[in-house]
Amino acid sequence: MYEVEVKVRADHRLVRQRLAELGAERTERVSQTDVYYDAPHREFAETDEALRIRREGGPDDGDAEADDEPTETRLTYKGPLVERASKTREEHETPVDDSTALEGVLDGLGFEPAATVEKERERYGLDGYTVTLDSVVGLGEFVEVEREAEEDGIESAREGAYEVLRDLGLDPADQIRTSYLGLLLADDGDASQ
Amino acid sequence: MYEVEVKVRADHRLVRQRLAELGAERTERVSQTDVYYDAPHREFAETDEALRIRREGGPDDGDAEADDEPTETRLTYKGPLVERASKTREEHETPVDDSTALEGVLDGLGFEPAATVEKERERYGLDGYTVTLDSVVGLGEFVEVEREAEEDGIESAREGAYEVLRDLGLDPADQIRTSYLGLLLADDGDASQ
């Protein structure tokens, strides 16, 4: 299975209105803080790999109680593209109990925190696609439309994603192919927001 | 707190008899499989570090049902000695949900399995000490006596551990300071057993 994903900048207020009009249901709302690491033996920017600790918790809505909600920590490795057309990567991810100990392991081995991506994320279901509204600190608001597809269904899944974007009042031609990490590093973190 | 630990080779059948006579209770019985990794950027044998995935499950007693028991996986990093006298090390350890994904992360980063230490481990409590009976594949049977101590209590804790060994019919002079991994690597895995 391949992940077909289209991302554009978008004003969340307008997109939420359209989602409500289309009867889309919100399925999830979380805060994610991703710390990307540099390796002591490779230049990940050159090898096109990534090592990340993601902490995910309840939405950061100023509710002090919600801030006490348990956070899940996951360790993720993304390898270089194995197939360029579908953007398929080797990826390994596991939940980890003790995020402080995990930081200690990486630090001991010589890996260093290089960049942090913080976002509020809302997910909706619409026409078989997942619509994700990401509000990324330092970058602004984005909408991603994604679906899994078999190899021979990639093109039609992509066309369908464009259709969903248009239904939301967005333009597929605005597609951004760079990751949030890439955008942050390119901007040195002082982009719009 | 420091870990004071004394280890000797010992015939478990005789030690279990002594433990029963002394009224010691068995507190735990587990199987542990430890995979130690080589790093792509350092020679751990020279830097005196270790990176390990430990899988711990129920005892391997030929009971097919017990083999289905859930296994806990932990990732551990041990740094070099920070204090030689007390053998204190920087150590970071966390439980991890998905051991296959964790192997994938380490493999992707260029770490390679270097050696495996498999053992059956029984723990008993005796006179404030933990007495551990380890049966290590490829090495044979060992007994460890250990206790935590404050810095100024290390010497008396060590004397007490020697006393416990004598109570068990063992000789503190037989103390082995090499880790199981070190013993296996030194023997190339063809030692007694």
Automatic annotation (TrEMBL), chains A, B:
Biased composition (Basic and acidic residues): 47-58, 84-95
Comp. bias (Acidic residues): 59-70
Residue intervals of the CYTH domain: 1-186
Region Disordered: start-end pairs: 47-107
Pfam families: CYTH
Residues spanning the membrane: none
NCBIfam families: cyaB (TIGR00318)
Protein's UniProt name: Class IV adenylate cyclase
